[in-house]
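Field reference: sequence -> structure
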Amino acid sequence: MNHTPTWTLTDMDNRDETGAPHQITGPPDHLIPYLDGPVRNDLRTAQAATRLDQLITAYRNHDIDCARHLGPVLAIYTEVIRDENA
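Structure field:
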């Protein structure tokens, strides 16, 4: 049975009042607006914007390996909570 994966996105650059990194959990498609909103607004270079576009593509494709590879450059860490094939 195929299920939509559930991932947790941790943004090390955006923190709450206690200093904890911002985290959100959900299907990859539901996490993209955060990447394309607050994360994109924090970018300073064209190279970072290109990397973010690649990361968003990895999320759209449910490519966790690519997301884990691309994200840390942007201080974004992605973990699987539930795999789509589980």
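Note: The first strand starts at residue 6 and ends at 15.
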